[in-house]
Design brief:
alpha/beta, 12 strands, four-stranded antiparallel beta sheet, six-stranded mixed beta sheet, globular, Rossmann fold, ATP binding, ATP hydrolysis activity
């Protein structure tokens, strides 16, 4: 579903990714772990199409398409979703308004009819229920006044509404307390654990992986994958740290 080959990327002339290769098949969840500055967020931004990240070598294929040849909105319409480590606030724009416009924009790009207001609210209520979020929260401005955990849960509601084929989730567990961590983990499973979907889950810690069981765990260091293994690799990293594998 997602195939990254020999990817090199830099920001402001600084090399960040140095020959990263990775493949995630349909129905799979892969976790990426690694020390600070390893290039984890850079990888997420490159896949999402964030401006300012220059690809100097390599390729990324998503669902048979050249992902790097698509604009960010085209990637979203093709089914790519990027969850941010720090979701932004958008004063003056309600979550409901934002999400309906985002969904219908993608539907139009795929040649589908936009959802009516009533159908959208029904869908939003269903997805909010998965994350145990009151619909009143979705009527508020996007992330304004939300706690860290509420922002992450709102973003998972957004993922549920947009129903992507592939989700790149950048430290979704950041800022979550114990209960929110479980709820978000259950939400990811309910939305994305499907045979035709895939997830790349970027995290510093093993704790989210107790709920979202990965098929593979990869260690990213110095801009490339240096070790891969099963879910037990995350437990090993939790015990021993990155020093031996990221040297």
């Amino acid at each position: 579903m997602l195939k990254i080959e020999n990817l090199h990327a830099e920001v402001d002339g600084n090399k960040i990714l140095n020959g990263l290769s990775l493949e995630v098949g349909a129905g799979e969840v892969h976790a990426i772990m690694g020390p600070n500055g390893a290039g984890k967020s850079t990888l997420a931004y490159v896949l999402g199409g964030r401006p300012g990240y220059e690809i100097t070598e390599g390729s990324v294929t998503f669902a048979g398409q050249d992902l790097l040849g698509l604009e960010p909105h085209e990637r979203a319409a093709a089914g790519m979703f990027l969850g941010f480590q720090y979701p932004v606030e958008i004063p003056g724009v309600s979550n409901v308004q934002f999400l309906r416009e985002a969904l219908n924009s993608q539907r139009r790009a795929r040649g589908e009819e936009p959802l009516s207001g009533g159908d959208f609210l029904k869908l939003a209520k269903e997805k909010a229920g998965l994350l145990r979020m009151d619909m009143e929260m979705l009527k508020r401005n996007v992330n304004v006044g939300f706690s860290g955990g509420e922002k992450k849960r709102a973003e998972m509601v957004q993922m549920g509404i947009l129903d992507p084929k592939f989700a790149v989730l950048d430290e979704t567990d950041s800022g979550l307390d114990i209960d929110a961590l479980r709820i978000v983990g259950e939400g990811i499973n309910a939305i994305m654990r499907q045979p035709d979907k895939g997830v790349l889950l970027i995290t510093h810690y093993q704790r989210l992986l107790d709920y979202v069981k990965p098929d593979k765990v990869h260690v990213l260091a110095k801009g490339r994958i240096v070790k891969s293994g099963g879910a037990d690799l995350a437990l090993e990293l939790e015990r021993e740290g990155y020093e031996t594998v990221a040297a």
